[in-house]
Amino acid sequence: SQQARIDVISGVFGRPPRDLQFPKNSAGKQKVISEIFGSNVFGIKEMGERLPKPVFKTFCSQLKGGQTLDKITADAIAHAAKVWALDHNATHFTHWFQPQNDTTAEKHDSFLSLKTSSVGGLREVHALETFSGSELLQSEPDASSFPSGGMRTTFEARGYTVWDTKSPMFLQEGPHGTMILYIPSVFISYNGEALDEKSVLLRSSSVISKVALEILHMIEPADGEDHGLTFCLDVPRTKEIFTTLGTEQEYFLIDRGLYALRPDLKTCGRTLIGGLPARHQQLEDHYFGKIPTRVLAAMSEVELELAKLGVPIKTRHNEVAPCQFEAAPIFEEAMLAVDHNLLTMDIMHRVAHKYKLKCLFHEKPFKGVNGSGKHCNWSISTDLGDNLLSPSASPETNYRFLIFLVAVLKGVLDHGDLLRAGVASASNDHRLGAQEAPPGIISVFLGSELNEVLNAIEEGRPVNKTLAGTETTHMRIEGTTLDLKIATLPKLNRDMTDRNRTSPFAFTGNKFEFRAVGSKQSPSFPVTILNSAVASALLEIKEDLYKQMGSKTVATDEDMLTVIRKYISLTKNVRFEGDNYSEEWVQEAAKRGLPNIVKSPDAFKRILSPHNSEMLTRLGVFTQTELESRYHILAEKYTKEIIIEAQTLWGLLIQHVLPAAFSYRRELSESATNLKQLSLNAVPEVKWLEQLAPIATAIQESAKKLDTLLAEQQPIQEAEVAAEHACSKIAPAIEEARNLTDQLERIVADKYWPLPKYHEMFSTL
Ligand code: ADP
Ligand code: MG
């Protein structure tokens, strides 16, 4: 009721702030973050200090060779990890894994074991802490309760979690000042099929690393090899390549008390009803605004907790919508960055509690204001720290940059629909295609400067300095005629890329930013797809370059330029520099043959399209069975989420909204009757009743419609048909009921309105 809302809001302002002391060093001075960073991680350094030297050496070489650990090494690591964990008050350990449900999973086991010995001929049982190599390496959760898309039937529900040795173990807070040892793991079936998000990411990472390295070795001379570029002689050769990822995480925070009064937020993560208040984001005063004190305190505690886990949060700020914020880390190797994003969401969620806040990761918690995304900044890096998508390196390496650039273009052109599938969900549908977020057409934005360089290469003409922005920057263009003999391309300036906020996939200086990713989802699947699509393009490019090179061991500039030019022409259609929200683009994209996939059920199907499934299985990232399973999991999750929303909304309408309308109506009609008895002619209450009645009736009907549609949905077994029905029938009915309810909210007296309103949730931080 209204009273509950008032109580929460007045409670907030009388509450003392949470007091948090930053850790202090031995001198009593507050520690700086770098001193705290990674203190709860059993990383390489910690292992090196605690493990016997030969064991540590074996571990490192097994890690590099991608081999599994032998028993002796595993036992020794487990022992060292146990001693370290017990030093930090740990009581339990858990394999920590990533099932396909956007969250992480864990099952705690204590270090406790019992040993029997004989004392004076009598058996004595005593307790001690143990942790064996096999407990470290593997665990066997009951896999039947996790989504598997029908890959395993319940009677053979065995699944295994296996320590991903590339990810270090870490400690998280347990109850009463104790700690829990986390072992990052993959989750696979008895037959080795991926049941999780992580296995496929690992596979895609090794595929792209391998082909990228092969290309690099084709275009860069080996140590000591004379390529006429004497300065190359002392440069050590790249031995390893990996993709890098920085996830900008957007989220909403609202007061927990108000949240508790909203069954829709609690059950579905978004408000199913609620009208926009007069003031929301139209003054454009929230983005980068002053961070509310309670929120800032919570953010700072989140950063502290994440620092202990070695998660490098760099940026925090207000986002566009009221109550919306963002956190961004320093980028890391993609595999680790995904783990760290999941930890970030987990810690945000938990710390928010301590501040009586609720953190909302849903892509569209509030209708009418901006939704949340998770921009995935992605690039490819060498072990020498060279960013392969950085154009700002010396001009001599621009060819290398251009080769990797066109590979990304080719990957996105060939598998844009798959990338779209990678970000599809019931919740992200509310955001994609709306006028605030990248639409369902995947295109690439390069910026006018780079665009001009590619056009010039394609057309074999000089780079237009004005278009390429060279007049305003300090770029050197030494050779402006791009004939095949000229080795120098313009030196591109990283800071010159424009900011086209409407593009789903934008080049931002020295990385690509995949902006269509949803705030709630794990970045793992989209990055897996991106890695795979680009790897596939690199394989094609490698073949072409190989042919071009003939008998040479290292490609010449001419070889590279020929191949680059070919791929620039091939991928022209995927480049778009204009406004991605415009109607013209929808038409233009259709002409270019780029798919526009508006709804998730259509996107999911693309996972099984021959051109996509062929690529993913050829590269060994997925098996056909795994792909089919994933399709089913995604489609079923989509359907279930919409059913849950419809059921929740039905409850709201029948149990909260309509009763409010009826109470108000009773008051109005009683008052109207009284006034009529006074023989007053003009009774405004009557007019109001007349306005109320049709809306209430329509709401009643829409509740009934939801009921009918849910009954129709129930017997549909086939995942594709079910998702289609949920999408085309139930989702619009939810929207329809909502619109009516929002009209009602405007005309019902506030004291009868059962749920916290948008303006209350927006203004109570
Ligand atoms: P922008 O303002 O263009 O979004 P920022 O420098 O603020 O760029 O970076 C946004 C995110 O991109 C950060 O998380 C950052 O760490 C990440 N990022 C920067 N460079 C790379 C890279 N080479 N690979 C992956 N992510 C990167
Ligand atoms: Mg950005």
TrEMBL record:
Name this polypeptide is given: Uncharacterized protein
Gene Ontology biological process: glutamine biosynthetic process
Domain GS catalytic: 225-657
GO molecular function: glutamine synthetase activity
Family: Belongs to the glutamine synthetase family.
Gene3D superfamilies according to UniProt: 1.20.120.1560, Glutamine synthetase/guanido kinase, catalytic domain (3.30.590.10)
Source organism (scientific name): Parasitella parasitica
Pfam families: Gln-synt_C (PF00120), Gln-synt_C-ter (PF18318), GSIII_N (PF12437)
Highest taxon in the source lineage: Eukaryota
SUPFAM superfamilies (alphabetical): Glutamine synthetase/guanido kinase (SSF55931)
Domain GS beta-grasp: 91-192
